[in-house]
C-alpha cells in the first residue's frame, strides 16, 4: 500500500473506532444512573459504619450533568473496547511478520482478561478504602464528598490495579522478544514481591490489611506464572539452538 492508501485506511479505522465509542457512550448515558448507584453504595456503608452524615455533593449547578457525561464516556469506552481494539489490530497486523502477529495476539488475548480482573479486584476493595479514608474525619463532622473528585478517585484506583494485573504479560512479552531472561526474572523475585506489597499497601490502605493481601497474593501468583512461561520459552529456545548447532556441525 502507498502512503496515501495507508492514510485512507487509518482514517477508516479511526472513524469506525469513534463510531463505536459514540454508540457505547449513548448506551452509557442510559446506564449512568445505575453506575452512580454503585458508586453511592460505599457512601451508604459509611453512614451505617461510622454513624455520620455522608453523601455525594454537587458543588456547581452543572456538576451533575458533567459527571453524567463523564460516566457515559467511560462506560462507552469500555463497552466499545472490542470495536476500537479490533480497529487498532486490523490496521497494524498486515504490517507484522508471522512471529510478531503471534506475540501481538497472544498479548491481546491474555492482557484483556487480566486487565478486567484487576479492575474487578479494585472495585471489590473500593468500599474498604473509602471507609478508611473517611474515618479520619472527626465523628461529629459530615462527609460531603465532591462528586467529580470521588469519581476520579474511583477511576484511578480501578485503572491502577487493572494495569498492575497486566504487568506480568509485559514481562512475558519482554522475554519472548529476548529483552529479559527467565533467570533474571526469578533472581528478582524478592524485589518484585516487595514492590507488589508496597503497591497494594498504597492502593488499598485498609486498616485490617485483608484487602492488601487479597490483591497482593494474585499479583505474586501472576509474577511467578510469568516466570514459568518465560522458563518454558527459554528452554525451548535453548533446545532449538542446540539442534541448530548439531545440524551445522554435521
Spatial strand sequence of the major β-sheet: 1-2
- The fraction of residues assigned to DSSP E strands is under 5%
Shape: flat
User: Structural class of the secondary elements?
Assistant: mainly alpha
Following the backbone from N to C, one meets helices and strands in this order, namely HEHHHEHHHH
Tell me the helix content: over 70%
Tally of DSSP helical segments: 8
**Overall pLDDT:** 81
Largest sheet: 2 strands, parallel
Distance between the termini: 43 Å
- Return residue spans where pLDDT drops below 50 for at least 5 consecutive residues: none
Roughly how many Å is the radius of gyration? 23 Å
The counted number of beta strands is: 2
What would a concise description of this structure say?
By secondary structure, the chain is mainly α. The chain is built from eight helices and two strands, in the order H-E-H-H-H-E-H-H-H-H. Helix 1 (3-50) runs parallel beside helix 4.
How would you portray this structure in words?
The chain has 250 residues and is mainly α. The protein has eight helices and two strands; from the N terminus they run αβαααβαααα. Helix 1 packs antiparallel against helix 3, helix 4 (98-134) packs antiparallel against helix 5 and helix 7 packs antiparallel against helix 8 (210-249). The radius of gyration is 23 Å and the shape is flat.
Amino acid at each position: 500500500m502507498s502512503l496515501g492508501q495507508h492514510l485512507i485506511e487509518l482514517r477508516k479505522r479511526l472513524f469506525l473506532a469513534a463510531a463505536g465509542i459514540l454508540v457505547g457512550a449513548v448506551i452509557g448515558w442510559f446506564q449512568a444512573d445505575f453506575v452512580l448507584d454503585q458508586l453511592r453504595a460505599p457512601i451508604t456503608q459509611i453512614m451505617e459504619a461510622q454513624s455520620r452524615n455522608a453523601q455525594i455533593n454537587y458543588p456547581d449547578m452543572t456538576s451533575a450533568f458533567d459527571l453524567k457525561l463523564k460516566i457515559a464516556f467511560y462506560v462507552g469506552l469500555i463497552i466499545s473496547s472490542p470495536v476500537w481494539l479490533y480497529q487498532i489490530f486490523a490496521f497494524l497486523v498486515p504490517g507484522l511478520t508471522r512471529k510478531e502477529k503471534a506475540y501481538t495476539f497472544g498479548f491481546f488475548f491474555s492482557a484483556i482478561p487480566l486487565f478486567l480482573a484487576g479492575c474487578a479486584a479494585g472495585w471489590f476493595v473500593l468500599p474498604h478504602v473509602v471507609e478508611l479514608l473517611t474515618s479520619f474525619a472527626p465523628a461529629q463532622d459530615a462527609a460531603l464528598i465532591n462528586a467529580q473528585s470521588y469519581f476520579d478517585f474511583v477511576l484511578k484506583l480501578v485503572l491502577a490495579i487493572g494495569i498492575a494485573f497486566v504487568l506480568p504479560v509485559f514481562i512475558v512479552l519482554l522475554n519472548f522478544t529476548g529483552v529479559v531472561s527467565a533467570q533474571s526474572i526469578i533472581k528478582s523475585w524478592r524485589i518484585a514481591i516487595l514492590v507488589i506489597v508496597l503497591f497494594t499497601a498504597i492502593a488499598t490502605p485498609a486498616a485490617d490489611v485483608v484487602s492488601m493481601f487479597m490483591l497482593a497474593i494474585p499479583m505474586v501468583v501472576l509474577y511467578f506464572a510469568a516466570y514459568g512461561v518465560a522458563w518454558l520459552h527459554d528452554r525451548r529456545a535453548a533446545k532449538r539452538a542446540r539442534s541448530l548447532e548439531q545440524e551445522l556441525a554435521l
